[in-house]
Specification:
This protein is mainly beta. The chain contains two helices and 67 strands. The longest helix has 12 residues.
Length: 765
């Protein structure tokens, strides 16, 4: 390479002898004729033509349409992913969200920082049409060589030019070479090697694109049953556990080994096609086991090859082979049997019961008539010889009321008689009772039995402990008085813990084991154990959860309730969320009115919400008022006013806002109270005159209730707050005389009721 560089430097010295002849020179800037998104072009997102940027995101592709070559592209800070020279166009890969591009050419100049007219998205293909001037420049300087630009796939391939390894980065190679023919070779693991020849000429850069063919494949391996370990080509580590898909494997033959406990190993050779595809391989493993069931009387322990399997009976899989099954029991002769297990041949085995081993006990006591027990099992009264006592160590207990109970450990031997001679000490009796079932009694740390328990002992003080499942142990000192019989109750203390239950939303109803206990947040103390907790709230799905109470600890649980999908009849009341509606008002001082209403909920709690109701207009029929003008023909004066036959009608457009606070209620209804303010605009007419307009302001109070969440019945009182302003009468034929403006204090009050039907703004929330 250094020799080639020195060669090019020597050639540059000859430029002093070159003559530059320029036939025509036109300074024409590069410009963009059009830029658009190619909606149906999938080149940028298709395997083989897709490129990824430094963030491993799919790059966008700009197809630059031009007949010229030799362009250089600069994407600024985001850079250019790759460029490829194609016939009639140049493919330029850019990162997504690129904003501008600079296009440079040695003869044509520079188009600097061209802004994209649309957003650049990953995996999309765009078209840029360039307009360039025609530049003819004859340069008589020649460096004696030119570049070759290669694009290779995969990007990690090694490129050899003239049998020399050249540096490659990201799948692209550029190399300055002498004019003439050259060779190339592209090599990559798991790909077929590609080689060929190309020519470097003075006509311009030579562009090559080499895509290696895959020489690998993958296996999608399944087995029946699943969970088999798969080893490939004798590797000591499993490649995976079925089902799974292998890594890329070189084309050719590969050895697969399947191993699964209780199944026969399986080996098979597979051939990888080497076209990059994923092949499927499924095997069915042959069982190497049988199901064996073993039963033995008297609940003896069952051993298989010295491994404990169960008590009384056992069933399970055993691999093919020879086994020793045995029934064992303390102080008994074991029973054994050898079996052979064959794959697929199930069998049932019944072992004979272990044979007991006996000895005898000769017991004599003073006084006679003492109760004799071994390991808590009653044998009889002394004196006596008790036969058929199992060999081994036992706890011998001798008791008699009024005497101290005697306990000792004895060792019974097979075929022998053990003599025991005892003198009982005088004492008293204490009966230990408990109101807790299955309470276990311990005296001086030694378990003696279950309450009620009668304890005969010598006079003195004894430590008694009571134990029961789910309760704390209780230890008490008990005094035995000689010659007396006493009763002592000793109860273990319940093990309790504290539970704190919160919900979202709050104030939900809480049920424990199906019983209602209150609303959240809820605290309670309970015995240790598991409890079923359920929370309910209107408009939400019930939530159930198991909680565990641990003694001496506080358990905190939060139940999150999911909102129901609401329909029209699921609305709690008129103020729930947002709704529209219509109203019909009946008044004592006016006739009636109709209007439209809007309501929305301003609170969150079920019983404390605030509702705003807005009447956005309506129609009101007015009373008879005023009089008909009576006059003589041609008489400019009014003779009289006929109040009997005159009729005045008017339209009222009210705008009122009411705020109402809920007082209480249930699912079907609620009561409320509130206040309102209103503005009224009136327009009406008379037989001989027009009421141009009038207006007034008023305030009032409300009380009402809702029915089935969507119907309101409201009772209200209204009183005018300000004077009413009226532009009065314009009489026929006398406009100048009677066109006047008046204001007066309107002291009217009104009492009425309103019936409102609300319709939700949307059928579902």
């Amino acid at each position: 390479m250094k020799a080639l560089v020195r060669y090019f430097r020597s050639l540059s010295l000859l430029s002093l002898f070159f003559v530059f002849a320029i036939d025509s020179l036109s300074a024409q800037e590069i410009s963009v004729k059009s830029f658009r998104l190619l909606e149906t072009d999938l080149t940028a997102n298709t395997a083989g033509t897709m490129k990824r940027d430094q963030n491993n995101e799919t790059a966008a592709l700009i197809k630059v349409v031009t007949k010229e070559t030799g362009f250089v592209f600069d994407g600024g800070m985001l850079g250019i992913v790759a460029t490829m020279q194609k016939t009639g166009e140049i493919w330029v890969y850019v990162p997504q969200k690129a904003r501008k591009i600079t296009i440079s050419h040695q003869q044509l100049g520079v188009l600097r920082d061209y802004p994209y007219p649309c957003s650049i998205e990953a995996g999309r293909t765009y078209e840029m049409v360039l307009t360039t001037g025609r530049v003819t420049t004859v340069v008589h300087e020649d460096a004696g060589g030119q570049y070759v630009a290669m694009t290779v796939t995969p990007a990690n391939a090694e490129v050899y030019i003239d049998d020399m390894l050249v540096e490659s980065g990201g799948g692209s190679v550029s190399q300055l070479l002498k004019y003439g023919k050259h060779t190339y070779r592209v090599v990559a693991p798991l790909y077929e090697t590609d080689m060929g020849q190309f020519t470097i000429s003075s006509q311009g850069r030579t562009d090559l694109q080499v895509s290696l063919r895959p020489a690998y494949g993958q296996l999608q391996i399944t087995s029946e049953p699943v969970g088999a370990e798969v080893y490939i080509d004798g590797d000591y580590k499993p490649a995976g556990t079925t089902p799974f898909t292998t890594e890329r494997l070189p084309k050719g033959s590969h050895k697969l080994q399947f191993k699964l406990a209780s199944y026969k190993p399986y080996t098979e050779n597979v051939v990888i096609a080497g076209d990059g595809s994923i092949q499927s391989k499924s095997v069915t493993l042959a069982p190497n086991f049988a199901v064996v069931s073993i039963a033995v009387p008297e609940n003896a322990e069952i051993f298989v090859n010295e491994e404990l399997k169960g008590v009384g009976s056992w069933q399970g899989r055993l691999n093919a082979g020879l086994y020793t099954v045995e029934a064992r029991k303390t102080s008994h002769y074991s029973s054994k049997q050898s079996i052979e297990v064959r794959a697929g041949e199930n069998q049932h085995i019944t072992l004979s019961a272990p044979v007991p081993r006996y000895g005898s006990i000769n017991i004599n006591t003073r006084p006679m008539g003492a109760t004799v027990s071994i390991d808590g099992q009653l044998l009889g009264e002394s004196p006596n010889i008790f036969k058929n006592v199992l060999i081994g160590q036992h706890t011998l207990t001798v008791s008699k009321e009024g005497y101290a109970t005697h306990s000792q450990t004895i060792d019974v031997e097979e075929g022998k008689v053990l003599p025991v001679d005892l003198s009982l000490q005088s004492g008293g009796t204490v009966v230990l009772t408990s109101n807790i079932p299955d309470t276990r009694i311990y005296i001086d740390g030694i378990y003696v039995g279950v309450a009620p328990y009668t304890h005969n002992a010598g006079a003195g003080r004894y430590s008694v402990t009571a134990k029961a499942y789910g309760y704390d142990d209780v230890t008490r000192s008990v005094v035995v008085v000689a010659g007396q019989r006493n009763t002592e109750m000793i109860n273990p203390k319940p093990q309790t813990g504290t539970v704190q239950i919160t919900t979202l939303p709050s104030s939900s109803k809480i049920y424990i084991d199906g019983s209602y206990v209150g609303t959240s947040p809820y605290f309670f103390e309970a015995r240790s154990g598991s409890y079923s907790v359920m929370a309910t709230s209107y408009g939400y799905k019930p939530k159930s959860q198991e909680i565990t109470v641990q003694a001496g600890q506080t358990t905190s649980e939060t139940l999150y309730l999911k909102a129901k999908r609401k329909r029209l009849m699921d609305y709690y009341d008129a103020g729930d969320l947002f709704s529209l509606g219509g109203a019909w008002d009946i008044l004592w001082t006016d006739k009636c009115s109709m209007g439209g209403y809007v309501s929305f909920k301003m609170g969150q709690e079920q019983f404390t919400w605030l509702t705003a109701v807005l009447n956005i207009g309506g129609y009101k029929m007015g009373k008879n008022r005023g009089g008909k003008l009576l006059k003589e023909e041609g008489d400019p004066e009014i003779d009289e006013i006929d109040t009997e036959n005159a009729k005045t009608t008017y339209t009222q457009i009210p705008v009122s806002l009411a705020l109402r606070l809920r007082l209480g209620g249930g699912d079907w209804g609620a009561t409320y109270m509130g206040a309102h303010a209103s503005y009224n605009f009136n327009k009406g007419d008379n037989v001989d005159a027009n009421i141009v307009n009038s207006s007034n302001y008023s305030v009032g109070a409300q009380f009402g209730f809702c029915i089935r969440r969507i119907i309101d019945i409201t009772f209200f009182y209204t009183h005018d707050l300000r004077p009413a302003y009226n532009q009065q009468y314009i009489y026929e034929n006398m406009p100048d005389f009677y066109n006047t403006f008046e204001s007066h204090i309107n002291k009217r009050w009104r009492i009425g009721t309103s019936f409102v039907l609300y319709i939700p703004f949307s059928g579902e929330w």
